[in-house]
Give the backbone structure.
Amino acid sequence: MSTLEIIGGIVILIVSLLTIIICLSQEQKSQDSMTAALTGASADSFYGKNEGRTKEAILCKITRVFVVILFAAVLAVNIIPIFTK
């Protein structure tokens, strides 16, 4: 194993653990669209308008970033050794 593979493995381990922790800290999205339709609930509330600024939205964005980093790291660890031979 080269030094680059070891560093890549450590990066993958850390990013995957952070992704798992962030995913577990998010609340589960409710699927109450039928209830909202019957009760007249609207997405035009203050919460609906500022949804991008909530803790949930921030955690969702961070999760996406970590998943992209994880994907790139896994590809790099598997592709770089092919070109170094």
